[in-house]
From TrEMBL:
Name of the protein in its database record: Sulfur carrier protein ThiS
Organism, scientific name: Franzmannia pantelleriensis
NCBIfam families: thiS
Pfam families: ThiS
Length: 66
C-alpha cells in the first residue's frame, strides 16, 4: 500500500498499523505525535489504528525548549 508520510510517498505492507509504521521508522518509545488524514491518533490507539492506501500521515517529534 502507498501512503504519504510527512509529504513523501512511502510503501507499506498491507494491513499495517500506526504502531507498525512507528516501529519501521525506529521511533518506538520516542515523544512523537501522529496524525492520520488530519486527525490526531492518541498513543493509546496506535496499535488499533490501521492504515489504508492513500492515507496522509504526519509524524512530529516533541522537542523541549525554554
Amino acid at each position: 500500500m502507498q501512503i504519504l508520510l510527512n509529504g513523501e510517498a512511502r510503501t507499506l505492507e498491507a494491513e499495517a498499523t500506526v504502531s507498525d509504521l512507528i516501529a519501521a521508522l525506529d521511533l518506538t518509545g520516542r515523544r512523537i505525535a501522529v496524525e492520520v488524514n488530519e486527525e490526531i491518533v492518541p498513543r493509546s490507539q496506535h496499535a488499533q489504528q490501521g492504515l489504508a492506501d492513500g492515507d496522509r500521515v504526519e509524524i512530529v517529534h516533541a522537542i523541549g525548549g525554554g
